[in-house]
Amino acid sequence: MKTLTEIIYSYKNARFSWDNLDCCTFAANVVYEFKGLCPPNLRDIENYKNEKGMIKWLKKMGCEDLSEAPTKFLNVERRDISTVKHGDFVYFKNEDGSGSIGVCNGVRAYFIHRDKGLVATPVINCIYCWSLNNG
Q: Which domain holds residue 11?
């Protein structure tokens, strides 16, 4: 069984791609593999090819913005980042006001960035978290 770090680092050379390997699909793939679960295939619902398409898709699913997506799709409560645990989904608000979903791996959170690929940020810079364990 792979560690969370091994799973995350398997994306080291991966490149961002809307609807294929964006922040949501990256985080879902990592967390679900770490937990030994099969990730939901949200692509069956609707495909999107850019940020505008993703926002339209989120609204169609009943989300005002990306920060509501994990609650909607995982059916778990959004929590303050102070309660984050290893392997939780996290939400980071970018300087431009957009957000990103990533994965907590100790003191760092990992994301797939549009221009930089796999990036890390201190988890304390994130705002929210969600746990598949709901605890």
A: 4-130
